[in-house]
Specification:
The protein is of the alpha/beta class. It has three domains: 95 residues, no CATH class; 57 residues, no CATH class; 190 residues, P-loop containing nucleotide triphosphate hydrolases (Rossmann fold, 3-Layer(aba) Sandwich). The chain is 40% helix and 19% strand. It contains 15 helices and twelve strands. The strands form two sheets. The chain has an eight-stranded mixed β-sheet with strand order 7-6-8-5-9-10-11-12, sandwiched between helices. The radius of gyration is 31 Å and the shape is elongated. 32% of the residues are buried. Bound molecules: guanosine-5'-diphosphate and magnesium ion. Guanosine-5'-diphosphate binds next to helix 8.
Length: 366
């Protein structure tokens, strides 16, 4: 008689797997429950091994359907007695084991999920993962090498820096913080706001400008934009605030496109502001609707409202758009940081950067 061995996480899943592989006429000869050995990164896990055979020619061949009560099936399956299995029959056993994931990969997946890292970055980070190395050491390195940080624009912004993105994502606040960051580093900066439509928009940007001693001009039409930036001809960088595209107001969108069309593309950077707590589908939708402008980099806002930044890193990777800035609060001009590898590492959760946990693991081995 041909015997089959199936190993799975529980008796039920082993039985289901056996039925899936060998059909519903399978009978169970023996069952063994045990735990896997715990590893450096993993807990012990339950396993159930069943040895089964096909009830052929017994005359009792009976179809067992999925609906049939499991315990009845098991009772019936307990013939013949497990001890009657001879040594040669055991050797004849065909062994099926679900492909076991290495401890390192399991831990790596757990870490990536806990940090909300999504595809395609998720799979990329797991590619050829070494089984004998701690994923908490391997992964941060990989995350950093796959994360795009826009160091160039941080230091050498183009003449026009336009902030685009949905209403409420933090464009105006982030623009004011960024303008101040450059002013502090010795650049001569000015602000032009194209948001002449929203109530209170002028007051908001003017208040920031006054508080930070940065000149602010408003421009609602192309000629006004041209004369505004000409009046700032002696400035190094001109930051341009926009009102965001509206899914409902096509006329407004046309006007924004016409206004931005005035700027010399080669001398303009378009920064898309996305809030860190935004859902990935929404961020993708925004990215697509603004893609015609040629998005240069991302300003990720409201980091203070999220626990992890995996979604942001995944979005940046998926859209091949580097991150330039992070903001983590409403305070202008303080709550802004230039993106960097060090900052990304700081926001990763549960890696070897949790030094206390890491040290105790190390002392366990030595
Ligand atoms: N918690 C938090 N709030 C922010 C941050 N950046 C902006 N905000 C707030 O988000 C709201 C919308 O910001 P605003 O700059 O007017 O967005 P805009 O419509 O895109 O110009 C304001 O209440 C800001 O104070 C941030 O980093 N953290
Ligand atoms: Mg605004």
């Amino acid at each position: 008689m041909q015997y089959y061995t199936v190993v799975a996480e529980s008796y039920e899943s082993a039985l289901n797997k056996a039925r899936e592989l060998y059909g519903n006429d399978i009978r169970i000869n023996s069952r063994r429950d045990y735990y896997t050995r715990g590893g450096l990164f993993t807990r012990r896990e339950p396993r159930c091994e069943i040895v089964c055979y096909l009830a052929e020619g017994t005359g009792k061949k009976k179809k067992v359907t999925d609906e049939k009560d499991m315990s009845e099936f098991e009772k019936e399956a307990r013939t013949p007695n497990p001890s009657s299995l001879s040594r040669s029959e055991r050797l004849d056993t065909e062994i099926y084991r679900e492909k076991e994931m290495s401890d390192a990969e399991k831990e790596a997946r757990r870490l990536l999920e806990a940090n909300h890292i999504t595809e395609p970055l998720f799979s990329k980070l797991l590619e050829n993962l070494p089984e004998d190395k701690d994923p908490r050491i391997v992964l941060p390195d990989r995350i950093i090498s796959l994360s795009g940080v826009d160091y160039t624009r941080q230091v050498h912004p183009k003449r026009f820096v336009v902030f685009i993105g949905p209403t409420g994502s933090g464009k105006t606040t982030t623009l004011a913080k960024t303008a101040y960051l450059y002013a502090k580093s010795g650049k001569r900066v000015a602000v032009i706001s194209l948001d002449t439509y929203r109530v209170g928009a002028y007051e908001q940007i003017k208040a920031f400008g006054d508080a930070l001693s940065i000149p602010v001009a408003m421009a609602g039409a192309e000629d006004e934009l041209v004369s505004a930036y000409e009046s700032f001809s002696w400035k190094d960088v001109i930051f341009i605030d926009t009102m965001g595209l509206s899914p409902k107001d096509q006329e407004l969108n046309l006007r924004l496109r016409a206004l931005l069309g005035v700027l010399d593309k080669d001398r303009t950077d378009f920064i898309l502001t996305v809030s860190a707590s935004m859902k990935e589908e929404d961020a993708m939708e925004q990215f697509t609707s603004y893609s015609e402008f040629g998005i240069s980099s991302l300003a990720v806002t409201k980091l203070d409202e999220t626990e992890t930044i995996g979604n942001v890193l995944s979005f940046s990777y998926k859209t091949s758009t580097p991150i330039m800035l992070f903001t983590d609060g409403q305070k202008v001009p303080d709550d802004i940081k230039k993106a960097s590898s060090a900052l990304i590492l700081e926001y990763l959760k549960g890696f070897g950067l949790d030094m206390k946990g890491y040290r105790s693991q190390v002392s366990d081995i030595s």
